[in-house]
Amino acid sequence: MVALTGFMSFSCSVYAQENTKQMTLPECLTFMKENHPRVKAAEASLRAAMAGHEGLNHLPLYARLSPDLKFRKQQSQISIEVNDAALQQQIRDTAYGVAHCYYLVVYAGQQKQLTEEIIQVLEKNIKALELKFKVTNNASDQKHLQELKLGLVEAKDKYALAVTGFDRAKSALMEEMGGRYRTGNIMPKDTELPEFKIMNFFEKDFIIDITEKSVNARLEAIKSSRAVDITSLEVDAQNSARFAPKFRTFANGSDLHYIPIGVQSRGEDFTPEQITIEMPPNLVGKRTYRVQSAQAYLDRAVNVNETTRKLIRLEVGNAFQQLKETHLRYQELKKHQPTLKNNLDNLANKPLKFLTEEEASIFERAGRMLGNYNQTLLISIDNVIDLERATNGIFSLGFTCPSTHTMDGLPVERK
What we know:
With 415 residues, the chain is mostly helical. The chain is built from 10 helices and 4 strands; from the N terminus they run H-E-H-H-H-H-H-E-H-H-E-E-H-H. It has one domain (22-390): Outer membrane efflux proteins (OEP) (Up-down Bundle), CATH 1.20.1600.10. The N and C termini lie far apart (67 Å).
């Protein structure tokens, strides 16, 4: 039984290794677009809207006498645009999740490697110092030994977090790409986090320009704007039915697939509450009252559109500020990164000698600061990816959509 268990374990290990695929971020994003259930669901909604529009254009003769038909056809055409925007938004939002998880795996791998190196050096020096202490029985050596052992405990704790974080991030990446049963066992091809220079992106005029362009480009703004058009046509449709005491609305057979861009939160991370479009399936009463009701819902749609655009401005502005805050920290750590890495490598490769108390302290601090450097760089990357999503690609370093700027902060010229 033990032999069988060992054989099965070995077989599973070999199977996992044989079926591990290395993929770049663009490859992961392409796979997501072709396979993710959320994207497939949005595509199905678009096809349904297109089929509904075709249905309105091929009604039997008796149905074409409906007074609101021409308005329903226009609403149906706009509904296709709304559903297409919803599909593109789903792809953009899911692309953020894929890129976020991709670099989280890379970061966790770097942290694993860093903590492994620290653990090896500390274990080597603890053994050497234990042998020395047996001979000298020196109190200072005993204190130094205790400090090294505490450092080893801390390093092993961080290594355990890196290992579990690596596995969680890898599972999340596969889910964001469409699910492990579709992706199989995958690994990012990148082994190091990319670096970039973006300090010139924080000028006030640049942020204002990107923000205003984003307001017009964001898919939520497109949807809310077209929803105003649909609701405006509803006023005309209700006005066309003169004698009906109860008359259907566009919501009777379809909806706008309107997705708010934010949910209200309170406290330190306060954000305003979003409002959504409303329309009952039927309006009741004489034509005058039905038209008044439709007009009231139109007024609401106009306010939803205004609120949406304001929230987009707020979101983009906040995204720039978060990136600025994180990147300032990253730039400061980057100044010291070469020295920290050099200290770590020199002390790790010190031949046949245990570290002095001062050297051990430098070694541990260098390892801790390099870990902070990697983490801050990861957060900066995540901020950029979120900014690409928030601006709908108006600002991009090329993580999830075509670049508008290079990694060195220079604008990309479009032909």
